[in-house]
Amino acid sequence: MPYPQGGLIMAENLMNLIAQKPDLPKSKFYMFWNGILTFHFPLQLDYIVALRSSTTGSNSMPKFYTVVQGGEMNVVLVLGFKKPAEDTPVGKEEIVEELTSYIEECFNETKFSTIYAIGGIGLSFAAYKMEKSGPPELQLIFDWSSNVVSDESYGKMVQLTSMVDEMTGTVRD
Known about the structure:
Strand order of the largest sheet: 1-2-3-4-5-6
Strand content: 25-35%
C-alpha cells in the first residue's frame, strides 16, 4: 500500500521548492514528516505522534517528533530532522548526536528497552535504534535514502514499522 496521493503531491511540491531554494527552512517539512509518521503509526493502532522540543548539549532546542504507544505514553520512536541544505556529512553527524541525546532522555518515558529513531534531512532519511542497556549510541538499521516516498524507501519504512510493532505487540490486519 503506497502513500496516499496527497502525501506524494506534498513531497513533489517540496522537491520543487528545494530545487528553487536549497536553504528551505525545516518548518516546511513539519506537516510532511507528521503525515509520514501518522501513516505508519496510526491512532487506531494506539500510536500517538507528537512534536516536542528538547534542550540538548548544544542548547539548540531542536524539535523532535515522538511516536508513543497507548495510554501509558511509552516512547517507541523518535524522529529528528533538519533542513535540506544540511544534507551533508556534518549535518548527518549532528542529527545522530541530537537523536542520541534526546533518546537518552526518552528512556525515562518508556517501558521499552529499545527506542527506534529516524534522522530526516529534507526528504532524505536514515533509521536507527538505541538500546537502553548498551552504550548511548545509535545503531544503524537503514543507511541514508534520498527520497522517503520512493518505493524502496517505503519498503524500508514498512520494515521499520514492523520492528516497532513487534516490540510493542501491535497486530495489524
